[in-house]
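2024-03-11 09:14:02 INFO queue: dequeued item Lipoprotein, len=172
2024-03-11 09:14:02 INFO validating residues
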Amino acid sequence: MRKSALLLLCVPLALAACGPRSIQAPDAYDVSGSLGGNWGTDPRLRLALVGAGFPEVVTNNSNLAQNLVSTGMNTWTFGVDLPNVPGVAGVYQVVVYNDANNNASLDGTEVDSVARNQQWLIYSQVGGNIPATRFTPEMNVAQGWNLYDKREAISTTNPRPGQKVTGYDLSR
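2024-03-11 09:14:37 INFO prediction written
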C-alpha cells in the first residue's frame, strides 16, 4: 500500500515539472528585444510567431511563453520562447499586436495593429542550402532555428544559428 501511495504522490510532481515555465525576465527567453511606438490607451499587447512553411503552410501562434514589461511611456522590453520544433519548417517572424478582444490569438480584425521588423527566423530540420522563398533569398542554414537579417547581405554570419536572439526590436 505504501509503494502505491508514494507512486501516486510522484505522478503530480512529474507532471508539474513538465508544465510551462514560470514568467522570466525578458532577456531569459529565446527571442528578446524592445518595443516602441504609440499603441493607444491601455493596449493588450501580445507576441505571436507568424510565417509560412514549405509548401505554403501559414502559421499564426500566439500560444508561446512570453513576457512584455513596460519601461516607460510607449516603451517595453519583451521576451518570447520559440517552439523547439515548429509545426513545419519555414520562414517566421515574431510580431507584436494589440489583442483588442483579449483572446490570445492574432485575429483578422487585429492584423492592422501588427508591428514587425526586417529579421526573419528560419527553421530547418537539416542544415544546408535552402531555396528562395517569397520572403527570403536562397541561403545556407544550420539545423534548427536561424536568424536572417534582411537589411544585411547574405554572408557567413547572415543567416546565423539563432538559439538565442537578442535585439529583436519592434516598433510602430
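2024-03-11 09:14:37 INFO annotate: Confidence is low (pLDDT under 50) at residues 1-19.
2024-03-11 09:14:38 INFO item closed
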